[in-house]
Amino acid sequence: MGKVRMVVFGQIVLGPAGCGKSTYCAALQAHCASSHGMARRVMHVINLDPAAESFAYEPLADVRELVNVDEVAEEVELGPNGALVWAMEYLVDNLDWLTDIIQEQLVEGDYVLFDCPGQIELYTHYNIMRRITNALVELGMRLCSVFLIDSSYALEASKFMGGSLSAMSAMVQLELPHVSVLSKMDLLLRRPELSDSQTHADAGHVETKVADDSYRLARLFLHMMSSDVELDEPEMKLELELALRPALAVYQGKESTEEQSGFEKLHCAISDLLSETSIVQFYPLDLKQDEVIQDLIVQIDLIVQYDEVAELRIGDVEEKDPDEDV
Ligand SMILES: Nc1nc2c(ncn2[C@@H]2O[C@H](COP(=O)(O)OP(=O)(O)OP(=O)(O)O)[C@@H](O)[C@H]2O)c(=O)[nH]1
């Protein structure tokens, strides 16, 4: 018998190891539970990382109940990376485990975050994540991929480019609506030493300037986010744009010269491509600021058209007293 289609919303939370995926899921779950109005909802989380050690959210389901990397590594005698790929292949071969949870435990209009493993080869070299998202879309889920990179990447041009290209790869491979996020902005903003050019003397003038600009502009961005300042001024808009891809400024618009190495020319070309086409734009996320989390949720709601279904349910959720089960 075919699966019953129903509209359930979801975010596929991706990004390199340690970029903050599990923390993001926990923060969104807590934020939505304590919000009012449209943002208030039960944000379910399903852990899809068979190598996860711990997380701060309450999962609806945990893939480690189906397959666990430590057991795989022992039984199949593979290293940590091979065991992870093996475990994810096992999940794909047993996708009923996941689709049954969605069909049996969720109802129309529910919202789920999928906390995914950090290995980017799962969507760059293999089609594992693609097969999982295809199965979810077939059920009728409206998905958005959310790709996180650590804000420290924004301070180094080569890292930032690598992160941008990985984000682009996820966007192309999964063919889902997509949002890229610069996570852990609180760390970037809490680094006053970045303004001290002495600290960066060894790294050279260019990287020092990038670090300074990044710090100043990221502050400007978050200030504007939290104080509802209208962005009418073209200069402010320009500054804001630069704040979202500061490291690329090192290479942007550089004329090709004889002295440049092949790699530098390649960096310039990639940087121009990323900047001119605006293919990858990062949303700077500081989990310590509720307004910033809220704004990201609203943007993703628009992308997956959450309000169409959710408005019908909002009354039900508002009426329920959050403490009534305690
Ligand atoms: N300061 C700060 N630390 C963060 C933030 N998000 C995550 N961290 C820290 O970064 C580390 C990694 O966070 P996780 O949420 O486990 O990252 P992950 O992407 O799920 O990691 P993997 O599961 O290994 O791929 C933890 O020590 C977190 O406490 C943030 O917004 N701010």
From TrEMBL:
<dbReference type="InterPro" id="IPR030228">
    <property type="entry name" value="Gpn3"/>
</dbReference>
<dbReference type="GO" id="GO:0005525">
    <property type="term" value="F:GTP binding"/>
</dbReference>
<comment type="function">
    <text>Small GTPase required for proper nuclear import of RNA polymerase II and III (RNAPII and RNAPIII). May act at an RNAP assembly step prior to nuclear import.</text>
</comment>
<dbReference type="InterPro" id="IPR004130">
    <property type="entry name" value="Gpn"/>
</dbReference>
<keyword id="KW-0342">GTP-binding</keyword>
<dbReference type="InterPro" id="IPR027417">
    <property type="entry name" value="P-loop_NTPase"/>
</dbReference>
<protein>
    <recommendedName>
        <fullName>GPN-loop GTPase 3</fullName>
    </recommendedName>
</protein>
<dbReference type="Pfam" id="PF03029">
    <property type="entry name" value="ATP_bind_1"/>
</dbReference>
<keyword id="KW-0378">Hydrolase</keyword>
<keyword id="KW-0547">Nucleotide-binding</keyword>
<comment type="subunit">
    <text>Binds to RNA polymerase II (RNAPII).</text>
</comment>
<comment type="similarity">
    <text>Belongs to the GPN-loop GTPase family.</text>
</comment>
<dbReference type="GO" id="GO:0003924">
    <property type="term" value="F:GTPase activity"/>
</dbReference>
